[in-house]
Amino acid sequence: MWYNRCMENEINIPKTLQQAILQYADEDKCLELLMMARWPDGVIKCPYCEGEAVGFVRSRRLFQCKRIGCRKQFSIKVGTYMEDSPLKLSTWLPAMWLITNAKNGISSYEISRSLDVTQKTAWFMLHRIRLSFGNIDTSDMSGTVECDETYIGGLEKNKHECKKAKNGRGSVGKECVMALLERGDSNKKSRAVC
Ligand SMILES: [Zn+2]
User: Fold this and answer.
1) From ligand 1's centre to the CA of 167, what distance in Å?
2) How confident is the model at residue 94 (pLDDT cuts 50, 70, 90)?
């Protein structure tokens, strides 16, 4: 997931929501960050044909596949949970920060208030970001790995077992999110995967 890769690559992870909003205010900087996360080796791949001959239309922030027979244009959002959304990266990134940093889960109402977007928009982002949590890649984790879990999208904040969310009222629309923490040492940074 891009955010985790950002955390590995970027030194200046925002510590507060205000910092996150400021840091992610510039659309070009957001794009740069996402490009580093998505294509860490710097080779941009076309999501349609996997071709590596790709140009960039700076004025529209779009990539252009140069492969004959494809030649499709695509944005950084194509193939991610941000696909088909007109929302700016400068809205998505603070939302992602907010959701990742809400230890006890966060509601669309809270996101709406914090980011000054409508509740509908907040719900949409929350839903999409939650979906992206479904893909946990633990294949390259090693050493001491700790596990924690939390809920996203619910109001009951004090439950800590996945099972509980399945029972009783208020569990609809709630999701248990597992987070794995790979402990670092002198040679390795700690890393979290959601
Ligand atoms: Zn292509």
Assistant:
1) 47
2) very high
